[in-house]
């Protein structure tokens, strides 16, 4: 290759690399922009948060809005309700989904394939179409405005998703692991708990983060199923906006606080998420 051609080729590669970096930075800023504005608004004085025209940078940083959000509403109670419902439903969904996915993976049959297709079909149904039937069922069993109602609803919604997501992980684990555990004296359930689950930890982490986010971010079912005692943070944050007033400062502070649990959880399980997203992608 001539030196001139080599120079042009390197220049083309560097130009393309710079373009990709700039495009990535632009897209990152595009997605992070609203959250940065939300964060900065939560640190503004209350009068400046609703100023017109709005400003990006606070004249002074203050935690006035974070203190005020507890004075307007029992937001701490709402956060606890959200956390209990999300954590409990995530644990149940992942465990039951793992059992279902393991059974479908290891005992493949025509009935199992029909059941898997059925679980996928459930996820395709719009949530608004099953909200009223869910409400009637919860009302008939006397669980309206309880955290147990939210846990049951979120679990029933997330279990099909967990099965669909985890079956690929179990398919990628050789059946020889099960057979070796059975030879060593484990029961089928013992082999699942002691051998298969530890191996599929990346898949469990990936499924957990998605099911937790679905439960944590829910607004529709929390609005229908709760009124006072079991009200969640998503419904509570919406109450900063009324027909006569908008408490933008406390609302943004509550929104930032609401996003922290998912961010912290994602930070601790991020090493499992990357490997978990590709674990069941390729079958050997």
TrEMBL record:
One of its GO terms (biological process) is transmembrane transport. The chain crosses the membrane at residues 20-40, 78-102, 114-136, 148-170, 191-216, 248-269. Its main location: membrane. This is ABC transporter permease subunit. Residues 79-269 form the ABC transmembrane type-1 domain. It is a multi-pass membrane protein. InterPro entries: BP-dep_ABC_trans_perm, MetI-like, MetI-like_sf.
């Amino acid at each position: 290759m001539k030196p001139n051609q080599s120079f042009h080729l390197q220049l083309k590669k560097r130009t393309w690399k710079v373009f990709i970096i700039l495009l990535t930075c632009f897209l990152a800023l595009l997605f992070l922009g609203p959250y940065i504005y939300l964060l900065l608004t939560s640190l503004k004085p209350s009068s400046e948060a609703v100023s017109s025209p709005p400003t990006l940078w606070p004249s002074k940083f203050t935690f006035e809005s974070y203190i005020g959000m507890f004075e307007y509403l029992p937001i701490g109670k709402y956060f606890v309700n959200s956390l209990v419902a999300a954590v409990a439903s995530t644990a149940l969904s992942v465990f039951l989904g793992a059992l279902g996915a393991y059974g479908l993976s290891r005992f493949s049959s025509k009935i199992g394939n029909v059941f898997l297709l059925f679980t996928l079909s459930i996820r395709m149904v719009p949530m608004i179409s099953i909200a009223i039937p869910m409400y009637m069922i919860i009302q008939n069993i006397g669980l309206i405005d309880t955290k147990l109602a939210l846990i049951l609803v979120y679990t029933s919604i997330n279990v099909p998703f967990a099965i669909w997501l985890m079956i690929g992980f179990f398919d990628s684990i050789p059946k020889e692991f099960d057979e070796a555990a059975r030879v060593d004296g484990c029961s089928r359930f013992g082999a699942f708990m002691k051998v298969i689950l530890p191996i599929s930890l990346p898949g469990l982490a990936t499924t957990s983060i998605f099911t937790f986010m679905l439960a944590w971010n829910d607004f529709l079912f929390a609005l229908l199923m709760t009124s006072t005692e079991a009200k969640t943070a998503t419904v509570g944050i919406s109450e900063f906006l009324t027909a006569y007033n908008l408490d933008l400062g406390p609302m943004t502070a509550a929104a930032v606080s609401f996003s922290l649990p998912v961010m912290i959880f994602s930070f601790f399980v991020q090493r499992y998420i990357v490997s978990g997203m590709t674990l069941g992608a390729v079958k050997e």
